[in-house]
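User: Just a sanity check before I run the rest of the batch. Below are the structure tokens for the first item. I only need the designed sequence back.
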């Protein structure tokens, strides 16, 4: 539990902004009918992320709210600053910047492969790495540009580039220290890999007239692909490799390697998702599929239902998240993996530690975790200075037993305790040094235990307000709450009725001017504390005008749920 909440939203928003600025600078081409790039990727691929080309955002800016934000005239100063920074190295940098952006016209994929193709062992006798990485880019119409960018990236002290031929294709070899990389232009594709056999396999695949055996033919990929948004601009896929083959033989019996195998990660078969800009809302979709029978990480996910008990607490905040999780199942899974991996002496140490915890808490660790009935929520509001204020809530049973555990865990940090009705309030104080003068100070945090919930917040009034809403005789969805807003209801309708997790942000109702000001203050204070950052250029902060965010973005709603096939995620930002 974060006892010192701080606003971390602006950096995430700015990061997305900087990434997506590049995606809208160049005009989109027409969508071409080409075979899926996955049809050529090695079947040993365990992860890839693919940009499907600017064709998949063509005309999306006419309706997609996020892309409209990035085309707002108030973004222009930020774009100009980026170009100015690139100009500082010479006037040719502007062309290079525009060229790099234009590469996003075409599709490309970055992937990781386990047990890539092998050739003879090196002369040193060292075995090749069991993991390889590659990059494949559709170079149609971009071959000259790629050669130009490669030439401009060479420095005077760069290592010489060696070349060799492979089936009519010239492969360039670059060595930097102990690292060697390989690249080639072939059959309208630019290919990069970190291993020689891997790039040769990729060249053969992308030069083949007929699609070879590929990742698109394995069942895990097919199970993910059929559920993804066909109009997605970004697509990613991962599958669990055979850990027995990945973990070196000499490490399979050590505690870490054995415990990893005992977590039964092999029950997680595939993970994938996509990002689509094809409608007014930007859609982030994903799923984790596998064997959901007991004895794996799937056990942690709680059941799905139409409503959450914590809704009265989180509903009047502009931002919240709630999930159902089984902490006791998580502890059981981890303990089982660790116990089976350690020696008898280490097992005796674990047993002794558990006995000490039981004496300290007044009950065993599984029993203590069992006091939480599975629903965990957090909700954010903002102070007048833009500081994020977050309230946490968890559903519980046996409040008297939980209160005893909280008292034991809080120990000397508890400085006061009082009761109101059937609720007990605990005041906690944590020592710290004032960053301004170095003097010792105390930061207060407050906890409340009700018959149904454990709550925590940085201000006691937040707890009292939350409990008043919880005890209200009115409807669960309190008047004026985010749940009643039409845009929330419209986005929520895209999700299943029953969920295991739900999150939302009323973007239009957030005080962005105060949030940006608070973020700028945090950055400036960080620079003052670190002399090495004294030359940091913070001018970009003032170029992002807070009012442009709610001008275009109004609401974000997402959820996740579990079924017999796995866990599914879906969210919409509009």
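Assistant: Here's the designed sequence for the first item:
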């Amino acid at each position: 539990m974060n006892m010192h909440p701080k606003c971390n939203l602006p950096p995430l928003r700015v990061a997305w902004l900087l990434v997506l600025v590049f995606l809208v600078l160049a005009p989109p081409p027409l969508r071409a009918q080409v075979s899926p790039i996955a049809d050529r990727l090695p079947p040993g691929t365990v992860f890839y992320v693919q940009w499907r080309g600017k064709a998949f955002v063509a005309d999306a800016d006419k309706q997609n709210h996020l892309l409209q934000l990035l085309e707002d005239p108030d973004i222009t100063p930020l774009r100009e600053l980026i170009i100015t920074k690139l100009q500082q190295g010479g006037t040719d940098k502007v062309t290079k910047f525009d060229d790099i952006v234009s590469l996003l016209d075409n599709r490309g994929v970055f992937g990781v492969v386990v047990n890539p193709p092998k050739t003879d062992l090196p002369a040193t006798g060292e075995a090749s790495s069991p993991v390889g990485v590659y990059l494949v880019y559709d170079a149609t119409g971009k071959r000259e540009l790629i050669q130009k960018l490669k030439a401009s990236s060479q420095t005077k002290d760069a290592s010489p580039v060696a070349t060799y031929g492979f089936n009519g294709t010239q492969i360039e070899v670059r060595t930097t220290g102990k690292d060697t990389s390989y690249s080639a232009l072939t059959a309208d594709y630019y290919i990069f890999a970190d291993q020689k056999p891997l790039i040769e396999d990729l060249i053969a695949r992308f030069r083949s007239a007929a699609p070879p055996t590929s990742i698109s033919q394995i069942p895990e990929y097919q199970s993910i692909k059929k559920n993804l948004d066909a109009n997605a601009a970004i697509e990613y896929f991962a599958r669990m490799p055979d850990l027995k083959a990945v973990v070196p033989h000499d490490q399979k019996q050590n505690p870490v390697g054995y415990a990893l195998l005992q977590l039964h990660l092999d029950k997680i078969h595939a993970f994938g998702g996509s990002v689509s800009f094809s409608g007014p809302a930007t859609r982030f979709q994903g799923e984790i599929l596998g064997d959901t029978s007991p004895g794996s990480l799937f056990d942690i996910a709680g059941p799905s239902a139409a409503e959450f008990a914590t809704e009265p607490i989180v509903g009047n905040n502009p931002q919240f998240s709630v999930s159902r999780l089984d902490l006791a199942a998580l502890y059981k899974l981890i303990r089982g993996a660790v116990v089976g991996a350690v020696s008898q002496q280490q097992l005796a140490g674990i047993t002794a530690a558990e006995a000490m915890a039981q004496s300290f808490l007044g009950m065993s660790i599984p029993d203590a975790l069992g006091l939480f009935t599975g629903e965990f929520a957090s909700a954010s509001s903002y102070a007048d200075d833009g500081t994020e204020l977050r309230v946490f809530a968890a559903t519980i049973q046996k409040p008297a037993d939980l209160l005893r555990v909280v008292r034991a865990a809080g120990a000397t940090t508890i400085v006061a305790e009082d009761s109101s009705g059937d609720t007990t309030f605990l005041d906690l104080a944590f020592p710290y040094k004032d960053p301004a003068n170095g003097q010792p100070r105390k930061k207060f945090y407050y906890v409340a235990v009700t018959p149904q919930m454990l709550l925590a917040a940085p201000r006691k009034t937040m707890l009292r307000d939350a409990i008043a809403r919880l005890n209200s005789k009115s409807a669960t969805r309190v008047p004026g709450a985010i749940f009643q807003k039409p845009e929330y209801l419209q986005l929520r309708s895209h999700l299943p009725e029953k969920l295991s997790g739900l999150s939302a942000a009323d973007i239009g109702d957030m005080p962005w001017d105060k949030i940006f000001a608070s973020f700028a203050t945090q950055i400036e204070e960080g620079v003052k504390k670190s002399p090495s950052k004294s030359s940091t250029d913070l001018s970009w902060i003032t170029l992002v005008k807070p009012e442009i965010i709610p001008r275009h973005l109004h609401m974000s709603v997402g959820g996740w749920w579990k079924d017999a096939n796995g866990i599914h995620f879906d969210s919409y930002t509009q």
